[in-house]
Specification:
The chain is built from nine helices and 13 strands. The chain has 319 residues and is an alpha/beta fold. Bound molecules: nicotinamide-adenine-dinucleotide and uridine-5'-diphosphate. Uridine-5'-diphosphate binds next to helix 5 and strand 8.
Length: 319
């Protein structure tokens, strides 16, 4: 017996989900990890499978789910532009039907429910940095819209369930996060650049590389998620989560070449449609309400991530 909660994590075998599941187990909770393995894999949660408090369930959240839980973290959704553009219809279904199913479950269980929303709800922002009050600048029919508008609709659903049914919701707008357990072919910039650098291949800069992002290390983000879930029920968000240090993509590439000691050069490729020109979170609300501050600087987080990918590529080679 233990005095922990039973926590459902959808998308639990993805990058963020696998870290969240591991942390919840460390804190003594029971974890039900639900995933359809669209982008995630069993490998990220392999080390958890022997834990008696961990259960892995293959399930697509676009279909209803019946189980018992005290809290729900709804993370299921491909997060990399490469993945969500590959199957935009499924991405919208996951965002919208997935939210409806998980909200319906939370309503029956009277459970707290966390939504992994995204900085993409701000689109290509005209306000900088982005605070939670900004309504965004999103192309509703563009290539990224399956994700951006899917996530915006999910936010609408969360706040509608909150208003109409009094459901305790926690909506987090997550900014670019990186770390171990990212998929090597995930297509996101940090994993792409590290894998390319470790293989001495050219680092693919889309556009001029002048666009900016702010990168948060995964352990900082998970801590923020847990604090948010534990905060008073009237604190619903939306809440920005991320690191407020802003870098150009070119600076990121140069830092990764430096840290890996790689012989890679930079290669310029076309900028994908609707790629936001700048992005940096205003995290004053998280600072004030959760007393939270990212602790891991970019170079340190990149070092840890590089070590992870070095081991992964070595293992692949020896197989
Ligand atoms: P990820 O792609 O690594 O993980 C997503 C997981 O969801 C995968 O395991 C995938 O198989 C699963 N999934 C997808 N569709 C599903 C479905 N229909 N049913 C069940 N499982 C499904 O992505 P991530 O980086 O771990 O992101 C997790 C969540 O956080 C996503 O909702 C994403 O939108 C959000 N987010 C992440 C970031 C980031 O920088 N990592 C930024 C903003 C928002
Ligand atoms: N990017 C890049 N090279 C890559 C992958 C991404 O220059 O190999 C750029 C991409 O165009 C974007 C930024 O890096 O401007 C971040 O991309 P990512 O896919 O990681 O996340 P986004 O913030 O666009 O959702």
């Amino acid at each position: 017996m233990h005095d922990g909660k039973r926590v459902l994590v959808t998308g639990g075998s993805g990058f963020l989900g696998s870290h969240l599941c591991a942390r919840l187990l460390e804190l003594g909770h029971e974890v039900i990890c639900v995933d359809n393995f669209f982008t995630g894999s069993r490998i990220t949660v392999e080390s958890l499978l022997d834990n008696r408090r961990f259960e892995l369930l293959r399930h697509d959240v676009t279909f209803p789910l019946f189980l018992e839980a005290d809290e729900i973290y709804n993370l299921a959704c491909p997060a990399s532009p490469v993945h969500y553009r590959r199957d935009p219809v499924q991405t919208v279904k996951t965002c919208v039907h997935g939210a409806i199913n998980m909200l319906g479950l939370a309503k029956r269980l009277k459970a707290r429910i966390f939504q992994a929303s995204t900085s993409e709800v701000y689109g290509d922002p005209e306000e900088h940095p982005q605070s939670e009050n900004y309504w965004g600048h999103v192309n509703p029919i563009g290539e990224r819209s399956c994700y951006d508008e899917g996530k915006r609709c999910a936010e609408t659903l969360f706040f509608s369930y909150h208003r109409q049914h009094g459901l305790p919701v926690k909506v987090a707008r997550i900014f670019n996060t990186y770390g171990p357990h990212m998929h090597p072919n995930d297509g996101r910039v940090v994993s792409n650049f590290i894998v390319q650098a470790l293989q001495n291949k050219p680092l693919t800069l889309y556009g001029q590389g002048n666009q900016t992002r702010s990168f948060c290390y995964v352990s900082d983000l998970i801590e923020c998620m847990l604090r948010f879930m534990a905060s008073p029920p009237d604190f619903t968000g939306p809440l920005n989560m991320g690191n407020a240090q802003e870098f150009t993509i070119r600076e990121l590439a140069e830092t990764i070449i430096d840290l890996t000691g790689s012989a890679s050069r930079l290669a310029w490729e076309p900028l994908p449609a609707d790629d936001p020109a700048q992005r940096r979170p205003d995290i004053s609300l998280a600072r004030e309400r959760l007393n939270w501050e990212p602790a891991v600087p970019l170079r340190e987080g990149l070092r840890r991530t590089i070590t992870y990918f070095e081991n992964l590529l070595r293992e692949k080679k020896s197989r």
